[in-house]
Design a protein that fits this description.
With about 200 residues, the chain is mainly α. It folds into two domains: about 5-55; about 80-200, no CATH class. The protein is built from nine helices and no strands. The longest helix is centred in the first third of the chain and has 38 residues, at about 5-40. It is elongated, with a radius of gyration of 24 Å. It starts with a helix and ends in an 8-residue tail after the last helix.
C-alpha cells in the first residue's frame, strides 16, 4: 500500500474512533440522565423548569448527591424515634384548638428531626435540596407545607389567612415527610384514631 493509501486508512481510523467516542459519550449522558430521572422523580422535572436547561439541572442534582454523600446521616435510636412520635401525636391532637400554631410546631418538629438525622439546618431551599436526594417522593410535600406555613405567617392567602382546610393540608404534608424521616409508617389503627380533620386519606 502506498503512502496515499496509508493516509486514507489512518484518516478513516481516526474518524471511526471519533464516532465511537461521540457515541460512547452520548450513551453515557443518556444513562446519567435516566439515572437522575429515576432517582429524583418529579424533582428532576422541577429542577429543569427552575434552571431552564437539562444540563444545568443535572449538574445541580449531581452536586446535591455529592453534598449529601458527605453528610453523616444517621438513623434515630428507638427511644429518640419514640420521643418524636409522641411529640407528633401531642401536636396533632391540638390541631382543632389552634391550627395555625400547630402548623408552626409541625415545621419546627420537622426541622428538629432533620437536625437529629444529620441534615444541616440552612435555608429552606438548601434543606429541601438535601432531602430530595434520599427522599425525593416526599420533598414536594415539604415544599407544599412550607408554602402554606409562609402564607400563614405573613397572612397572604389571597385576601385572608390560610383556611383551616389549607392548614390541615400543611400538617398532612409535614406528616408525610416526618414519617419518612422517622422511617416509620402510621399503622391502620393510628390512622383510624386520627382526628377526622387530619385524616391522611
Amino acid at each position: 500500500m502506498d503512502i496515499h493509501g496509508n493516509s486514507v486508512v489512518l484518516i478513516i481510523g481516526v474518524l471511526v474512533a471519533a464516532l465511537i467516542a461521540i457515541a460512547a459519550t452520548f450513551l453515557y449522558r443518556k444513562r446519567q440522565s435516566q439515572r437522575l430521572r429515576d432517582r429524583f422523580g418529579a424533582e428532576y422535572g422541577r429542577t429543569v423548569d427552575q434552571l431552564g436547561s437539562r444540563a444545568k439541572a443535572e449538574a445541580e442534582l449531581k452536586a446535591r448527591e455529592l453534598r449529601v454523600k458527605g453528610l453523616a446521616i444517621v438513623a434515630l435510636p428507638p427511644a429518640e424515634a419514640a420521643r418524636f412520635s409522641k411529640a407528633w401525636g401531642e401536636l396533632q391532637s391540638s390541631f382543632v384548638d389552634d391550627p395555625k400554631a400547630v402548623v408552626v410546631k409541625a415545621d419546627q418538629l420537622v426541622r428538629e428531626l432533620l437536625l437529629k438525622r444529620g441534615y444541616p439546618i440552612a435555608d429552606f431551599e438548601h434543606r429541601a435540596a438535601d432531602i430530595s436526594v434520599d427522599h425525593p417522593g416526599v420533598v414536594l410535600h415539604y415544599r407544599a407545607a412550607q408554602a402554606i406555613t409562609v402564607r400563614s405567617e405573613r397572612g397572604e392567602a389571597g385576601s385572608d389567612d390560610p383556611s383551616t382546610e389549607e392548614l390541615r393540608k400543611a400538617v398532612v404534608h409535614y406528616r408525610a415527610l416526618f414519617d419518612e424521616l422517622l422511617e416509620t409508617k402510621p399503622s391502620q389503627s393510628e390512622r383510624a384514631e386520627a382526628p377526622a380533620t387530619l385524616a391522611v386519606r
